[in-house]
Fold this sequence. Notes:
The complex is a heterodimer of chains A (503) and B (356).
Chain A: E1 9-18, E2 21-31, E3 36-40, H1 47-55, E4 62-67, E5 70-72, H2 77-83, E6 85-88, H3 100-105, E7 111-112, E8 115-116, H4 118-131, H5 147-161, E9 165-169, H6 177-192, E10 196-200, H7 204-210, E11 213-218, E12 221-227, H8 233-241, E13 260-269, E14 273-281, E15 285-289, H9 296-304, E16 311-316, E17 319-321, H10 326-331, E18 334-337, H11 341-345, H12 352-364, H13 372-386, H14 402-415, E19 420-424, H15 432-447, E20 451-455, H16 459-465, E21 468-473, E22 476-482, H17 488-496
Parallel strand pairs in A: 3-10, 3-11, 6-9, 9-10, 15-20, 15-21, 18-19, 19-20
Antiparallel strand pairs in A: 1-2, 1-4, 4-5, 7-8, 11-12, 13-14, 13-16, 16-17, 21-22
Helix pairs in contact in A: 5-6, 12-13, 12-14, 13-14
Chain B: H1 2-26, E1 33-36, E2 39-42, H2 43-50, H3 52-66, H4 74-90, H5 95-118, H6 124-143, E3 148-149, H7 153-160, E4 162-163, E5 166-167, H8 168-186, H9 189-198, H10 200-205, H11 210-236, E6 238-239, H12 248-258, H13 270-290, H14 296-312, H15 314-325, H16 333-355
Amino acid sequence: MSMTPEPVLQATGISKFFPGAIALDDVSLSLYPGEVHALLGENGAGKSTLIKCLTGAYKRDAGTILLAGQEINPRDPQDSLALGIGTVYQEVNLLSNMTVAENLFLGWQPMRHGMIDNRVMLKRSKEILSGFGLDIDPSLLLSSYSIAIQQVVAIARAVELAGKVLILDEPTASLDREEIDLLFSVVRKLTERGLAVVFITHFLDQVFEISDRATILRNGRIVGTRVLADVTQTEIVTMMLGRELEEAKKERGKAVIGETILELKSYGRRGTIEPFDMILHKGEVIGLAGLLGSGRSETAGVIFGSTPADQGTASLNGKPIKLDNPRSAIHLGFGLCPEDRKTDGIVGDLSVRENIILSLQARRGWMRPITRAKAEKIAEDYVKKLDIRLASLDMPIRLLSGGNQQKALLARWLATEPDILILDEPTRGIDVGAHAEIIELIQTLRAQGMALIVASSELEELITYSSRIVVLRDRRQVRELRGDEISIGAIVRSIAEEGGAQQ
Amino acid sequence: MMSDTLRRIAPQLVILAVVILLNFIVFPGFFSIEFQNGRLFGNIIDVLNRGAPVALLATGMTLVIATKGIDLSVGAVMAIAGAVAASVVTAGGGWVPALLAALAAGLACGSWNGILVAIFRVQPIVATLVLMVAGRGIAQLITEGKIMTFINPGLIHLGAGTILGVPTPVWIWIIMGCLVTYVVRRTALGMLIEAIGINETSSRLAGINSRVLLVAVYLVTGFCAALAGVVVAADIKGADANNAGLWMELDAILAVVIGGNSLLGGRFSIVASLLGALIIQSVNSVILLSGMPPEFNLVIKALLIIVILFIQSPTVQHAIYLFRASTPPHAPTEERAEKSAEKSHKNNQTARESLS
């Protein structure tokens, strides 16, 4: 190892308790200058909690943090930034309605005669950004640049203010390949300067591409720290899961497709999604593919009635129906697991049990309450079936990790025994284990005769379970792939192709 | 289930006990109750009786606040309801039509608020502010600007009479509180109201009819406010459009807050709000009995809120949690598991004992 013996950050024995759960149990982490250190683990393993303890967003219940040999106790992220630890999150935490320069210098603007010196600020912004290989105009609004560039601006700000440790929490989740390359080149420049970078992600390929070492967490404890040059991906995944990961089987051909259940004709909504036709059969999965903003979620929304269609007709089992709002859709046997769990899915302060029975209860009406015992039974049933990990059914759902929240939401819809289930990005931000389980669940449901519509940005996943794939671009359907036509190459070509609609 | 409720209202019970103890200290005869002329007399009875309007308002206000809303108009609705009841009896009507007309007026006010909030998406504080200001004007129009007195014994009985020796207002608020609690907890209404208060988008996407529920909670507050208005008018044998229920919306909100219900909506407990109303009334009683100038009332109320908010702050809660858990951070898991096993074993034992 070509590492200097003195770590820049050394955390020892960090513990954190939440009511009813131990989030971190005696976790230690050392970061050396000039290294990229990946933090790996399933959802709920404690990665975010560890970061929040390091940056002071949470108050740790035990343990010490040494930064360059000095013990520190950051009160909040602002404080840790001043001490030298900068954090950049997946969602860029900057102000998109201010200029790039203002964002870079917010709170420490260069002053002249008690006024902000704009000229100096712009000049220095240009210097700082060119140091990151970015040649952009810092006087423009931040929102006029892509997410990747905004991400780099956030990193630049964090590095300028902190300068010792940089924590990147899922920075690549919403970036495409080119943007990831840009980001990684920035990270490499930083490590050359001697910064220690913590990298959190679910993408193992990227971990091996950029990181020197990796620390693996499971259930709030350290499983081990490895030099990545010495291990294989399989070993890392095994450490994360604590078991061997089975290869997801591709048994697309075996699907038995039943009779037509839903038929949509020139269905659409002005300004949201161009009119489209769709026929959905029992026992099949229609995959919705396309780039971000191509109309995947919008398609899901008009079918479920959360953004009702204003044109076209729909019929269910041959009978014409109206899908005006989620309530009527649910009564007709629809379910929708939304893309954004936090704002559209979970009801944070209600218990896991109440969250699971919520839709079923809403459909039964308030006059016919589900008894506590019955709710308990339904919830327990799905907790077992979907392997939801929790301390108690009575704990608020917001305390669960992302993957377990997603499973609980799936349980909510499965409890209503839907005929048609729409899943919008069911595996976003979910760890490898839960990921595989959800894909397996989709296949099981299909085999049981349920009709599913699944929107996902993960093409490999889509081709695993879809019997047909609808490709969207610019809010319209451009291509439908079926049978042997389905391959990642074909989807990518349809997304990229000009005039794909004619085909 | 029962123990959950007890744990929820424990802080309010403790505070109520402390305030009542203060009452006892400043006036040792606080607990004495006498039976004269077919009516119970005593300071405790007074607290229960005088607390009726705020308790009634707090019942409805709890539900509105649980949906992340607020109803500032309840005081004005009290004035309207009192004026309506008074005008019906002075026009020669009986007390039953007067009561029904007042309640109908309350429901009309509630539906106005509910429609503004649920259909037109006006922010609750603004929507109900409209009626708070306009309501008193409406009440004055009904009473034609004067205090409208009446002598109808049936109506007066609702505010000043007794049933089985207990003042009628006490019956009214206890029955109303129990009824609403029973309905929201025995049906799924309570959970659905909490759900829309916590995350309305999620709830709507889960199939909850949030509009109807929102209108419903404002109807309940309107109804409760109308009842409170009738009680107050009946007590003074007249409808005073200027002063009936004046600032009482703030006492109702205070009762809900003292009851530990978050103004951000979500989880709620009507019982705790009712205890909050009793705490407020007991504080008033302490100040009255101790002979302190009534100015102290507001300061002491403020101190109370600070104490309760302090107890309920997440920081203190976490500290209490750690204190209760009192397991050292590095204790091996086996030991912990053993302890909890032991504990559950003990629990089982005591459960068995209590069964046998």
